């Protein structure tokens, strides 16, 4: 898939291949995170044990904001498949603009699920993938670094729903225009859902987690990335959020081309 070539970006097969590749990135990021305990201090707002001068938020927020400020200058968020967690605070690139063809609707950048993704990551995913419940102050920096990798890979995957939605819209404009005009959210949800594709994803994840998730150095009682956790995260969080993005994108689609 080449973002400079619109045709490759709206080919559903290319999009799904990209989603498959993202599974590996997400699994390996989860595995990195699984080497550390949960460390709630990293996610606590204004924690007295971790003072952050002139900042109102958690240590992870602080690290993510500063990472995004640097990455925005490196042109990360110029790319149509990247969505910032701090859209109000990112900076202009120091590299020259790349003129990507516009493949998504003009409002696509406004669809931003990152606050929700971060909340669910901290509340539901970290407890599943961290090594054990507990603190390890010498690793706060490493944990924030791996959390950022996990969050960015989840964000990219979930917001890819915009490309999926646009491809589906282009493939059957008549059907989607009717559903959108009727604000038929259930009808849109039904039509974007492909149970066979979802089943295949969960099957593949089971195999991948079996193969990649084994850590022979783990002590008894330590958690690891099991197929069960990975399937749960995809089934209950990643796929439903991707579908939410798809539905929101489609509901606004008629405003962009009548
Ligand atoms: O591949 C698609 O058609 C998608 O819409 C993506 C996705 C997913 O999140 O992986 C979401 C909904 C479908 O039911 C199948 C898969």
From TrEMBL:
One of its GO terms (cellular component) is cytoplasm. GO terms for biological process: chorismate metabolic process; L-phenylalanine biosynthetic process; tyrosine biosynthetic process. The keyword Ribonucleoprotein does not apply. It comes from the Eukaryota. It is found in: Cytoplasm. GO terms for molecular function: chorismate mutase activity. PROSITE patterns: CHORISMATE_MUT_3. It holds the Pfam family CM_2. Homodimer. Catalyzes the Claisen rearrangement of chorismate to prephenate. Acts at the first branch point in the aromatic amino acid pathway where it steers biosynthesis towards phenylalanine and tyrosine, and away from tryptophan. This is Chorismate mutase.
